[in-house]
Specification:
Blueprint lengths: L12 H6 L42 E6 L2 E7 L9 H14 L4 E5 L3 H13 L2 E7 L4 H9 L3 E5 L3 H11 L4 E2 L6 H7 L1 H9 L7 E5 L4 H15 L8 E7 L4 H7 L26 H10 L3 E5 L1 H13 L6 H14 L8 E5 L7 H8 L2
Helix pairs in contact: 2-3, 2-6, 3-4, 6-8, 7-8, 11-12
Bound molecules: pyridoxal-5'-phosphate (PLP).
The site of pyridoxal-5'-phosphate has 17 residues, from helix 8 and helix 12.
C-alpha cells in the first residue's frame, strides 16, 4: 500500500472499498491466539509479526443500562495512548516502518498526534506533529514526552493541516485523514464488535464524527463482513457532531453531496471540532448508504453526559461525552430488542483542565 510523500486527495468510496476486501472474511482465519486487533492480520495490509504494536485493541464491549435499555459500549478510552486513534496509528506506522520511513509528519487536534508520536517512538522513527496552538496541555505534554517535535501553529485546524502538508513534501506523511493505512486500522472496530457480539449484526451504531476516521473505517469493516456473509445487513450508522461545529450535519439535512462553509463556534468537544472535514463527501455517502443520520448535541448536553458517565464510574474526555449525549437522544427511537453499540472514544485523563472547569462551575 504505497503512500506518496505528498498525498492529499480525498478518497472515493469505490476506491476505499476495494482495499483488502477482495479476500472473503472467514471466521476461522481470526488468529485467536493474538489478543489485540492484530488477530485480524489476515485482513490487514501487514502481518502481526511485522507490526509496530503495544498489544492494542480488542477493547471490552460492556453492556450498560441506559434509559431502561441495554447498550453495548466499547471501551476505546483504554488504548495505550488513551483514544481509539491507536487502531489507525498501529497499522499506519507499521506500514511506514516497513516502507523504510525514517521520519514522519502529521497534523492533529490532539489525540491522533499522541497516537502517531507513541507508535513512531515504539518503531524508533522520528516524528513531527503539527497542532493548533490552543490544543489541551495534557495532549501536548503527551506528544512531547514521546520525543516528537511539536510544532504549534497559530490559527485554525485547517491552517495547521496546510502547514503539515507543506512539510510532507520532505517527510513521510502519516496523516490519519489521508493515509489509507489508518482506515485499515479503524476498520477493526467493526470486526471486534461483531466477534464480541458472537457474530450477531448490530442494528444501530452511534459514533463521533469529526474527520470521520472511525466512521469510515467502521463502514469499511462492516461492508467487508456483509460482503462475506458474516453479518446479514449494514448497521444503521449515526454520526454525532457538536452543534457548535456541525458541517456534516448541515450538509446532511440539506442533502448536499459536499461540505459547504460552516461558521463554527468553539466547543468543549475539541476532538470533533473539525469545520471542514477533508473526507466530507465520503462520510455523507456512507451515512446515506447505511440509512443512518447525523445528529448534533449542545454544549450543556455534552457536559451532562460527561457527569452521567462519571457517576457510573467511567472517566472520559468531553469529546467522548458528546457521543454519549448523542446516544441518549437516539435511545428514545431505538427498539427495545435492537442491538445498539456505541463507545467511549477517549480517556478523561486527557482533559483534566476542562473537567476541572466543569466541576468548579
Ligand atoms: C479523533 C477523536 C474523535 C473523532 O474522530 P474522527 O476520526 O475525527 O471522526 C472522537 N473522540 C476522540 C476522543 C477522538 O480522539
Amino acid at each position: 500500500m504505497s503512500n506518496p510523500k505528498h498525498n492529499s486527495a480525498p478518497f472515493l468510496l469505490s476506491e476505499l472499498l476495494t482495499l483488502f476486501t477482495e479476500k472473503t472474511f472467514d471466521r476461522k482465519q481470526v488468529n485467536t491466539n493474538i489478543h489485540s486487533l492484530w488477530r485480524y492480520e489476515a485482513y490487514l495490509p501487514i502481518a502481526a509479526t511485522d507490526a509496530v504494536s503495544f498489544g492494542e485493541g480488542f477493547t471490552p464491549l460492556l453492556p450498560l443500562e441506559m434509559d431502561g435499555k441495554t447498550v453495548f459500549i466499547k471501551q476505546e478510552q483504554l488504548f495505550p495512548t488513551g483514544s481509539y486513534k491507536d487502531r489507525g496509528a498501529s497499522v499506519l506506522i507499521s506500514l511506514a516502518k516497513n516502507e523504510g520511513a525514517l521520519q514522519v509528519v502529521q497534523d492533529s487536534s490532539g489525540n491522533a498526534g499522541c497516537a502517531i508520536a507513541a507508535y513512531a517512538a515504539r518503531a524508533g522513527i522520528g516524528c513531527e506533529i503539527y497542532v493548533p496552538a490552543e490544543t489541551s496541555q495534557a495532549k501536548l505534554a503527551q506528544i512531547r514526552s514521546y520525543g516528537a517535535k511539536l510544532v504549534l501553529v497559530e490559527g485554525t485546524r485547517e491552517e495547521t493541516a496546510a502547514a503539515a502538508l507543506k512539510r510532507s513534501e520532505k517527510l513521510y506523511y502519516a496523516s490519519h485523514c489521508y493515509h489509507p493505512g489508518f482506515y485499515q486500522g479503524t476498520k477493526t472496530f467493526a470486526y471486534e464488535v461483531c466477534e464480541q457480539l458472537n457474530w450477531q449484526t448490530p442494528d444501530t451504531i452511534v459514533l463521533p464524527v469529526g474527520n470521520g476516521t472511525l466512521i469510515i473505517g467502521c463502514y469499511l469493516g462492516f461492508y467487508h463482513l456483509l460482503k462475506s456473509n458474516i453479518i446479514t445487513k449494514m448497521p444503521k450508522i449515526i454520526g454525532v457532531q457538536a452543534a457548535n461545529c456541525a458541517p456534516l450535519h448541515h450538509a446532511f439535512i440539506h442533502q448536499y453531496k459536499t461540505i459547504s462553509h460552516f461558521e463554527a463556534k468553539p466547543t468543549i468537544a475539541e476532538g470533533i471540532a473539525i469545520a471542514s472535514p477533508v473526507q466530507g463527501s465520503l462520510i455523507l455517502e456512507i451515512i446515506n448508504a447505511s440509512k443512518g443520520s447525523i445528529i448534533t448535541v449542545e454544549e450543556h448536553e455534552i457536559i451532562n453526559a460527561l457527569k452521567q458517565c462519571a457517576k457510573m464510574g467511567f472517566y472520559i474526555e468531553p469529546t467522548s461525552a458528546a457521543t454519549i449525549a448523542g446516544l441518549n437522544k437516539c435511545l428514545t427511537k431505538v427498539h427495545r430488542d435492537d442491538i445498539c453499540v456505541s463507545l467511549f472514544s477517549g480517556h478523561g485523563l486527557k482533559s483534566t483542565e476542562k473537567i476541572l472547569s466543569i466541576l468548579n462551575n
